[in-house]
User: Fold this.
Amino acid sequence: MKIHLITIGDEILIGQTLNTNAAFIGEKLTDIQAKVISTTVVGDSREAIINAVDNAFNSEAEMILLTGGLGPTHDDITKKCLVEYFETTYVKDEETLQNIKAIFARRGREVTQANQDQALVPECATILKNSEGTAPGLWFEKNNKILVSMPGVPFEMKSILTNEVIPRIIEIRPPKNECIKIKNILTTGIPESTLFERIGDIEEFSGHTKMAFLPNQYGVKLRLTTKGKDESEALNNQTEVEQRIRALAGRYIFGTNDENIEDVVGRLLIDRDLTISVAESCTGGLISARLTDVSGSSSYFERAMVTYSNGAKVEHLQVDEDFIHQYGAVSLEVARQMAEGVRAISGTDIGIAASGIMGPTGDTPGKPVGLVYIGLCDEKICTAKEFRFNGTRKRNKERTSQAALEMLRRHLLGIPYDE
Amino acid sequence: MKIHLITIGDEILIGQTLNTNAAFIGEKLTDIQAKVISTTVVGDSREAIINAVDNAFNSEAEMILLTGGLGPTHDDITKKCLVEYFETTYVKDEETLQNIKAIFARRGREVTQANQDQALVPECATILKNSEGTAPGLWFEKNNKILVSMPGVPFEMKSILTNEVIPRIIEIRPPKNECIKIKNILTTGIPESTLFERIGDIEEFSGHTKMAFLPNQYGVKLRLTTKGKDESEALNNQTEVEQRIRALAGRYIFGTNDENIEDVVGRLLIDRDLTISVAESCTGGLISARLTDVSGSSSYFERAMVTYSNGAKVEHLQVDEDFIHQYGAVSLEVARQMAEGVRAISGTDIGIAASGIMGPTGDTPGKPVGLVYIGLCDEKICTAKEFRFNGTRKRNKERTSQAALEMLRRHLLGIPYDE
Assistant:
């Protein structure tokens, strides 16, 4: 079933409201193998709504879903537009009126005329019950296509979509002999283009899986969309592709789906019964803030020292003052000593540290903005690595925190961090 | 200027990614009186992209903005589609190539072929510099209409939109005879409904200003949209409304427009020539990470101790072990002592501290999830306050960090923190 989604509302166009309805609908429809082929957002204007509906009816879409503009106030004009478009008239729907009265009774309020009018529905429409609010969903059929209009209030839309629309779609178009599985493979520490060179176009390798490269500040997400004739085949196909990707770029993969790297290192620390402490300069507490975003992190995260000033580095982390003078606070040696110092003072198994120049100012000759050193020490090794990032201050902090957590992950798994 | 926005990406259609780009673009264009009349989302398919572009060219839109599909991998096909649509060919853009090489050089990496190919641009396009990444923006003109293609990576799109596209739109279509001014008044520490009770519907007070209440985890943003016949009248009208709002809820207002509270307290600390240190337990470094997001923060931020364990609290912050036993680590007294301790050890003018239960576990009888104590000490006072939040672990951390920074702001300005 090919579906065209139309969401109505000025607040979406002017960016005051995120279109979370479109995301919810897209996800739910994908689950039942229906395909949103396009989404259109238009404002609360008669012409725009009628145009969008007409365009959708003339597209390849088999079904058109509308959200928004069914409320009781003057700017809610969707129902009026649909009565005009389908050349129909209004009738009173007794069941809807009872629902409206019941809702107002529960709230202990009088039913207003505007709300009573919500029981006036287009004559040619099938009424879809709204168990969460006063505006019912409306189901139209014309030229072998279906149009469904739902309120824009998210929980009302969700209720009608889930309880009324989706069961009807499944009935009309029962799931094909095909199953689609989506999985995200999460990588970090490798640019999109380098990753692409390693993995190539996975579709050439496998006819059943599509892959998209989705970069963000923490790395590149690989989204696999795999087909199979049933769930077991789809999962087998996906495993086959995932194994190939892991063979080609395994060391850069830190997790799957919605995981964060802090969740992954948290699990590894718990599994290995290890504790950690952090010394932060340039990241200003961000590495620790991310580590402690994980519920249960108090079992492995012991403490952090955010030593912004050189004095604090010397005082708390026993960094050698002469080293700071000789190499500068942003240096391999100081990062190493910071990691060593925080580990020693905290008595943890591992210490990690970051020192760098986040910008936009603070660079010196030979030490540009984006230069970062990350140190890592445990009872056996004490090392540091240089990184170079390229972004705004905030972006550089995010990337530095990600690199530190990735360096920790690789260390815990014994994977070399070679670039 | 009527603008049609096309965002490209399967991940948006299937609901994996929220269309935050559309919201950002809508907001920025509204600010300069351009009007997004419609947004279309299509998948990564040649036919869908070309169709959407063609429909937009045949609509009333004067300008078409595209985001997405400009990356270096096989699923990035926007540039190819545009070369086909505009019947043009590729040329190498030397400036783009230098930008790509410079980015890779800063990262200390080899330029891959896929990235070199990003310097191949449509011959008929004007190139818009991408200062955050490798894919430049592309500006086309045809039949008196403009089409601009930008990358989908949000921070790259934002950079090109803000620095390249918006100044050009303003030049082509200078603001009309009616002036619309948008201003955000940022509040924190007061719920939306209480704020509404204080301020009421500002439209009843003034015909020229619309106001929206936009709550987020850091507070409630009041968005004022004010009209005037020219800029000066619009600004006067807006000032009148703003003064009224400040009279009714002034103490809760920490800033305006895109400011963060960390920017505001940073300025206040610089103005007063004061330094600060932080002791964090439940926030795990987030307060410090936010303070150090501000460029120049090293002039007032000295250090932070993220003392997750009780041992670290006693050791570094001289918190009385007996107090921890008697009152618990999450208590008014311990928060006060943490603030006092970090101030003493750092030698800063001010010390702030947070201790609380962020959830989802960790609650004890009488100490529910969301209970937080924030301490603040300077040379004259040493105080702590209790807060109760109600959200996920991450949300509770964000709210705690906001409350700590607001407590600091009020302290610096001498405004009582009475609720």
Observations:
- The first helix of chain A runs from residue 10 to 13.
